[in-house]
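We treat protein structure as text, and this decision shapes the records that our systems exchange. Such a record has a labelled line for the sequence and another for the backbone structure tokens. The record that follows is passed on verbatim for readers who wish to inspect the format:
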Amino acid sequence: MDVPSLLHTAPGLGLPTLRSLPIPIIMLLFLANGREKDKKTQLYTISLSGGEAQLVADMENGVGNPEWSPDGKQILFTSRTWMDKKPETDVKHIKHIR
């Protein structure tokens, strides 16, 4: 007996995950490679009711590990950034803590 799947993935090296959130989910969050060969993985959303995907984050070195915030209003993700030059010290000055 065939059972419909709740999670559909495209072929590739991605790691599909499906997590339960304490809020109604109306948007799907996903990663996709750009169309150019050198374009890195970027972050998109698409409404579960249909429509076109919206680019959420376009980072020079790509995006990874996206997560919805507990209230579903923000998205957390990782991306590599490189400093132009090596810093003189490894001390970091933190200007703001929430």
Remarks:
- The two ends are 51 Å apart (CA to CA).
- The chain has no helices and five strands.
- Residues 27-78 form one domain.
